Amino acid sequence: MGDLTKAGQRLLVAQGGWHGLGNTRFKSSTNRAPRQTTPGKPGEARDLKLELKVLADVGLLGLPNAGKSTFIRSVSAAKPKVADYPFTTLVPNLGVVSVGRFKSFVIADIPGLIEGASEGAGLGIRFLKHLARTRLLLHLVDIAPVDGSDPADAAETIIGELEKFSPALTQRDRWLVLNKADQLLDDEREARVSSVVERLDWKGPVFVISALEREGTEELTQAIMRYLDERALRMAEEPAYAEQLAELDRQIEDEARARLQELDDQRALRRAGVKAVDEVDDDDFDDDDDDEDGARSSTCAEEGERCFMRFCVGRFRS
Ligand SMILES: Nc1nc2c(ncn2[C@@H]2O[C@H](COP(=O)(O)OP(=O)(O)OP(=O)(O)O)[C@@H](O)[C@H]2O)c(=O)[nH]1
Ligand SMILES: [Mg+2]
To answer: What pTM was estimated for this model as a whole?
Structure first.
């Protein structure tokens, strides 16, 4: 229906009724106390579903425990919770990263994604839409997982989920950030990095960092700032480039909305008792089937998002 992206922007969502005329409008030199009036007309009424999106320059993507919140803590003043268990982050966190004295950008940390996220598993899917407005995605990968798994598998999982959620979102510029480098010795580190890059056939920029030790983070934030400046300059100079990016934004928004609607529809069907065969083993954390007493239990993700919206509206008011 419309998009409010700037402060003070107005949008007509329902036309008010005609106000009618009071008796003073009928006053004349000969009729000082008219009794005549005309009634007003009812205005339009609409039920609106409002969507709140975070506006960040950079979005963080990754499996739970990849170190997204640790990264945002180390490069900004934001202090999201960090812990060594999955799903520590339940709502998006924004951090302002200052680069030099006068420049800054905003970074968004969203809850971790897991395999099946695009089908509704875990918490991340509802928050993926918040990445639609970002300019750059950082894909954080734990390069030294404690379970000894291959970091390339973790990276592939995220790329796969992204593709299923919105193919257009995979077209957005994305950098690979290999985190927890402090856990590896130099030669082991190099071998891991080249093996991940090779397996993913990754052609884009790669950064190797330790969010915890703040190694390589300064270099990364400087590179992000340069990228954002160059992008803004190019958009100002080349209208065709700006239009191409705007079209990509539209595509991402459309695909994200369609995917989320599809998931809502599936959930509504489940609630109504219609269960597809392949959904019988539904073990997602995002389940909001009816309770036994018929009351609808809200999901962690939905509750998290509601809290996030309350938080933003509260901040907006204060
Ligand atoms: N050694 C080491 N540990 C790290 C590093 N970055 C994060 N960690 C640890 O990894 C664990 C998970 O970090 P978080 O920042 O909470 O991970 P997350 O990606 O935000 O996880 P979710 O919020 O669950 O999606 C914590 O115990 C961190 O201390 C790093 O660079 N080096
Ligand atoms: Mg986190």
So the answer is: 0.76
